[in-house]
Amino acid sequence: MWKGEDQTYMQQAIALAYKGFYSTKPNPAVGCVLVKDDKVIGQGWHHKAGQPHAEKEALADALNNAQDVSGSTAYVTLEPCSHHGRTPPCSDALIDAGVSRVVVAMQDPNPLVGGNGIKRLQNAGIDVQVGLLEKEAYELNHGFLHRMRTGLPYVRLKMASSLDGRTAMANGESQWITGADSRVEVHKMRAHAGAVIIGIGTILADDPSMTVRLDEALLAEMNLSAEEANPIRVVLDPNLSLPMQAKMLALPGRTIVMTSKETVENSLERVEEFHRHGVELVAVAAQDDKLDIESVLHYLADEEQVNDVMVESGAIVAGAFVESGFVNEIHAFVAPVLMGDQAKPMFVLPSVTNMNDKLQFSVTDISTFGDDIRMILKPKRHLKSN
C-alpha cells in the first residue's frame, strides 16, 4: 500500500509537527508535507490554536513558491478536520486545492472529526491511506488523544528525590535536591502541560511560584513567549487555607483554587475574600477533607480543555494521585545524594500495608540530566483513565 518514499515524507511531517509540541494546546500538534513528482512543494505545521492548521500552512507555502498543488500527495500526521472550529475544515482545503492522494498517520478520535475528514476526502475521489507511522504520530499528542478517548487529561506525576527516596528534610527544606539540568527539564514539562497541580501543604511550606522559567532563546525554540509558557496553576485547597499573599497569585498566568462544595457553602466570608482578590475558585466533589481527584480532572478536561496535567506536590497529594488510579506516568528525577531516614518520603500510601498491596510499574525510559537520572514509569495495573 505504501510507496517506498512515503515513510520519508511522513517522517518529515512528524518532524514539522514537533515544532508545535509546546505551543498548540489545547489543539494537537500536526505537520503536513505536500509532494509532487517526487519533490516537496509545500510544508507546514500548526503553530498555535486559532492560527491556520498544518494543511493550510503547507498549501500557503506551496502557493508562495508558485507551485501547482493539483495532483500532489499530502502527508499529514493527523486526520484533516472536517468541521468548522476557529478555522474552516482542512479536508475542504485539500479538496479545493486538487490534491489527488492523502496519506494520514492516524485517525483523529475527536468526535467532531472521527473519520469524517477521511470520508469527506474519499467522497471527493481522493485516494486516502491511513496508518503510516501511527505510533510515532501518537507520541506527538498523548494528552489530546487521551482526552478525546477518555474525557480526562493525561496525568504526569513529577517527583524529585534523593537516592534513598526522600523529597525533603524533616524540617521541610527541599531546595535543591536535583541539579540545574533536571530543573530545566521540569520547566519544559510545565510548559508542555495545560495545568500543573499542587497541594495546599506545599504552598504553605514553600510558597512556590509554579511558573515556567526558561531563557528567551529556548522559549523561542519552543514557539512560546514567557507568558504563554505558563500552565494553569491548580491549587488543591479543601479548607480554603491559601494566603492571599501567596507568591503565585501575583505572578503572570492563571491560578485556580479548587475546594470542596461543602467548604464553599459553609465559608461564605472566606469565599468572598477570595473573590475580592480576584482568585478563581472552583468547587468539586470531596469526602473527608479530600478532594475527589476524578472531579478535579474532569473539570480541567471539560471546562478548560486541558490535555496534559502535571502534578508537582508533596508525599500526601502524590500518594493520593497514585492510589486514585488516574496517573498515566511518573517522572522520577533521582539525584545521587542520600538524605537519611528522617527526611520525608516520596509518597504517602495508606492502602499499601503488605507485599500483596505493592504498586508495580514498568520503566519506559531512563535518561540522564547532569548527575541525575530521570525514570519514566507507567503503572502495570489497569488504570481507571486508560
Q: What features would you describe in this structure?
A:
This protein is α/β, with parallel strands linked by helices. It is 31% helix and 24% strand. It has helices at 6-17, 54-64, 90-97, 116-123, 134-140, 142-150, 180-192, 200-206, 216-221, 261-266, 268-276, 293-304, 315-324; strands spanning 31-36, 39-45, 73-76, 101-104, 127-130, 154-161, 166-168, 195-199, 232-236, 255-260, 280-284, 286-287, 290-291, 308-312, 329-334, 344-345, 361-369, 372-379. The strands form 4 sheets. A 9-stranded mixed β-sheet has the order 11-10-9-8-14-6-15-18-17, with helices on both faces. A hairpin with a 2-residue loop joins strand 1 (31-36) and strand 2. The radius of gyration is 23 Å and the shape is elongated. The two termini are 31 Å apart. Substrate binds at residues 174, 190, 206, 213, 312. NADP(+) binds at residues 160, 176, 202, 314-320. In the C-terminal section; belongs to the HTP reductase family. In the N-terminal section; belongs to the cytidine and deoxycytidylate deaminase family.
- Percent strand: 15-25%
Q: Say how many strands there are.
A: 18
Radius of gyration: 23 Å
Count of helix runs:
13
Structural class: alpha/beta
CATH H-level superfamily title of the largest domain: Dihydrofolate Reductase, subunit A
Show unreliable segments: none
Note the overall shape: elongated
CATH architecture of the largest domain: 3-Layer(aba) Sandwich
Helix fraction?
Answer: 25-40%
Averaged pLDDT, please? Answer: 92
Termini separation (Å)?
31 Å
CATH class of the largest domain reads Alpha Beta
Binding site for Zn(2+): 53, 81, 90
Function: Converts 2,5-diamino-6-(ribosylamino)-4(3h)-pyrimidinone 5'-phosphate into 5-amino-6-(ribosylamino)-2,4(1h,3h)-pyrimidinedione 5'-phosphate.
Pathway: Cofactor biosynthesis; riboflavin biosynthesis; 5-amino-6-(D-ribitylamino)uracil from GTP: step 3/4; Cofactor biosynthesis; riboflavin biosynthesis; 5-amino-6-(D-ribitylamino)uracil from GTP: step 2/4
Domain CMP/dCMP-type deaminase: 4-128
